[in-house]
Amino acid sequence: MGLLDGRVAVVTGAAQGIGLEIARTFVREGARVVLADVNDDAGAKAEAELGGAGVARYVRCDVRDSAVVEAAVDVAEDVFGPLGVFVNNAGMTRDSTMRKMSEQDFDDVIAVHLKGAWNGTRSAANRMRERGAGAIVNISSISGKVGMLGQTNYSAAKAGIVGLTKAAAKEVAFKGVRVNAVQPGLVRTPMTEAMPERIWEQKMADIPMGRAGEPSEIASVVLFLASDLSSYMTGTVLEVTGGRLM
């Protein structure tokens, strides 16, 4: 028996990276998953890798558009059944100092991370509350706790996700819907490994465990929050950082 046997999940930003690892973990634990992303090539590849459309279905989804998010949930319920889990993972970066950052770069990051998470949380909660059960997991970041140089847009968005999570959790707890968040630290992905070595070493120096995290270690915590193992938890924010910035 898997921890998510019979559950239907939507994971945004699931075509690659941490989102794909979350989807992979969910499938392994018995869920059927809609992979919501805007990268068609990677999405099709992920669908095939996870077992095909009978288990994992790729759907093109720009999380900034509430109607498109609703349509992704419709696909999940039409193809697999009632929605049980929703993970708001989609994201992007447009790093720059505040002096050099364009308004468009600020707006785009806020729209994808924060508005996208709000769109997903609202859509999922509306379905789940009618059935009296469901788990929503929002992916924040340690950047939303401490603020990172060159990331006024990203840090603001990720901090906003924490507030969104707590407010939404209070609104829907009485309906049996749980809303929690995860704040990853430095995780080994192609994006982070492309950092200049100097920046990588600076970040590593802040981690008591002495290493970067792996996507699977984030996915395991998301699985915990999505499953009944966390049945008495809502509005919580779990840091998965190797002890960084305690």
Q: Strands of the largest sheet, in order across it?
A: 3-2-1-4-5-6-7
Tell me the name of the CATH homologous superfamily: NAD(P)-binding Rossmann-like Domain
Structural class: alpha/beta
Total helix count?
Answer: 9
**Unreliable segments of 5+ consecutive residues:** none
Q: What fold name stands as the CATH topology?
A: Rossmann fold
In which range does the helix fraction lie? 40-55%
> How many β-strand stretches?
7
Strand content: 15-25%
Count of the separate structural domains: 1
List keywords for this structure.
single chain, 246 residues, alpha/beta, Rossmann fold, 9 helices, 3-oxoacyl-[acyl-carrier-protein] reductase MabA, Sc_DH/Rdtase_CS, cell wall, secreted
Task: Write up what this structure looks like.
GO terms for molecular function: 3-oxoacyl-[acyl-carrier-protein] reductase (NADPH) activity. It holds the Pfam family adh_short_C2. This is 3-oxoacyl-[acyl-carrier-protein] reductase MabA. This protein has a 7-stranded parallel beta sheet, with helices on both faces. It is of the alpha/beta class. The chain contains 9 helices and 7 strands.
List the helices and strands and how they pair.
Elements: E1 8-12, H1 17-28, E2 32-37, H2 40-49, E3 56-60, H3 66-79, E4 85-88, H4 103-131, E5 134-139, H5 143-146, H6 152-172, E6 177-184, H7 190-193, H8 197-205, H9 215-226, E7 237-240
Parallel strand pairs: 1-2, 1-4, 2-3, 4-5, 5-6, 6-7
Protein name: 3-oxoacyl-[acyl-carrier-protein] reductase MabA
Catalytic activity: a (3R)-hydroxyacyl-[ACP] + NADP(+) = a 3-oxoacyl-[ACP] + NADPH + H(+)
Domain Ketoreductase: 7-190
